[in-house]
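Hypothesis: this fold can be encoded by more than one sequence.
Test: take the structure tokens below, design a sequence, compare later.
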């Protein structure tokens, strides 16, 4: 029997669960939540989620997709949290996208019925596991390939398994020079599609790509590169559609350029018969105060649903305070944390376990020091959900930011 999200309430809390109150040790998650814990009991540094914002964001991104005739298969590697996956599936997502075979297995353990692996599946042990899972007629699995070498490796790995329950669905991945994975030209991608269509153990199932590797802002050059790439992706899809037997997926979309994905997928060439147009936006559920707030075309529909809490532990010199959380606690690859409760201060650097908080003149007291005391807790706006969740096994969720009531503990599986 698959696990359920409700089973996570039976996990017993350990003293090794970072940030939880000492009194929680030995209780199950459900027993602890029954005591109506408050956030001020938790130990800093801490990542905190906003329940109301998560639910509103799940509705918002699903509604945005529905309005444009797109399916949503959000990228579950962002959170690796089955409770948050279930939130989006219940809101209307038709499946999940994941990045590694191990992540796919975790999703299957929680009964997720439709999974797209946005990566190649070539490890023999993972291929054997996937082939066995396909004996369940209710399970949909789709993987990507970007070269004939990938197809050869898949066929070799599947070759000794005997008769498969059914072929493995494979999408042709289109890349771009200087990008990440993906066939580099339309001709290469077309030849790959023909090779997949001829395979006795694979089925050509569509076209896939990731436009976010081609831009990092909304400059003229980045927008042109993204739009050009998406036009090529649609052109490839139209070209190979006649090689396929059954429904086809056409999929793209991180959380930065989803408007351009919707625009490209609205073209007649993207709507060949049997095509399912799929967006994979994963960060939209959590959103942020940094990178995605600055680049997302639907920022007005979304609310940042994660914050950091860190405590002042040192005032070593005027205008500088050190917080007790750093790179091991908060994301920093797409921008440093931003103090939300200390006007005029900014984070200027992170060490492993410290944040350097420096003051502009308006944030200093009469002595020239930052206007916070040792022991004060500072709320931090964070950037990039994809590198926030892997740092904690159990993450507290409050009713909404501004409320101290903890209503859930989100369990991650990194």
């Amino acid at each position: 029997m698959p696990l359920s999200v409700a089973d996570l309430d039976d996990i017993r809390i350990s003293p090794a669960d970072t940030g939880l109150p000492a009194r929680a040790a030995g209780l199950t998650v459900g027993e602890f939540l029954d005591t109506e814990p408050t956030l001020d009991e938790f130990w800093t540094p801490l990542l905190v989620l906003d329940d109301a914002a998560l639910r509103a964001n799940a509705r918002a991104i699903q509604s945005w997709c529905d309005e444009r005739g797109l399916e949503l298969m959000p990228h579950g590697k962002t959170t690796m949290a089955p409770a948050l996956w279930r939130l989006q599936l219940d809101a209307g997502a038709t499946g999940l996208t994941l990045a590694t075979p191990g992540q796919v297995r975790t999703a299957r353990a929680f009964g997720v019925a439709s999974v797209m692996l946005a990566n190649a599946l070539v490890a023999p042990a993972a291929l054997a596991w996937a082939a066995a899972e396909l004996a369940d007629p209710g399970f949909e699995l789709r993987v990507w390939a970007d070269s004939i070498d990938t197809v050869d490796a898949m066929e070799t790995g599947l070759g000794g398994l005997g008769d498969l329950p059914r072929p493995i669905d494979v999408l042709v991945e289109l890349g771009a020079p200087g990008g990440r994975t993906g066939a580099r030209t339309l001709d290469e991608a077309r030849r790959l599609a023909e090779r997949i269509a001829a395979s006795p153990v694979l089925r050509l199932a569509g076209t896939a790509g990731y436009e976010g590797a081609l831009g990092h802002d909304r400059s003229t050059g980045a927008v042109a590169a993204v739009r050009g790439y998406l036009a090529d992706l649609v052109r490839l899809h139209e070209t190979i559609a006649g090689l396929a037997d059954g429904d086809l997926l056409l999929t793209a979309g991180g959380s930065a350029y989803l408007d351009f994905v919707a625009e490209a997928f609205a073209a007649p060439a993207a709507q060949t018969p049997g095509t399912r147009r799929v967006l994979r936006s994963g960060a939209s559920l959590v959103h942020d105060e940094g990178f995605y707030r600055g680049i997302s075309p639907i920022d007005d529909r979304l609310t940042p649903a994660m914050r950091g809490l860190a405590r002042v532990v040192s005032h070593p010199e005027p205008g500088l305070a050190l917080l007790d959380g750093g790179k091991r606690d908060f994301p920093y690859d797409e921008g440093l944390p931003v103090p939300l409760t200390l006007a005029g201060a900014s984070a200027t650097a992170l060490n492993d376990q410290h944040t350097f908080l420096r003051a502009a003149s308006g944030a200093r007291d009469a002595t020239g020091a930052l206007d916070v005391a040792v022991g004060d807790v500072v709320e931090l706006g964070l950037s990039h959900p994809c590198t926030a969740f892997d740092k904690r096994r159990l993450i507290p969720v409050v009713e909404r930011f501004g409320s101290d009531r903890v209503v859930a503990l989100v369990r991650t599986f990194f």
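The longest strand covers residues 306-317. The two ends are 22 Å apart (CA to CA).
Hypothesis status: open.
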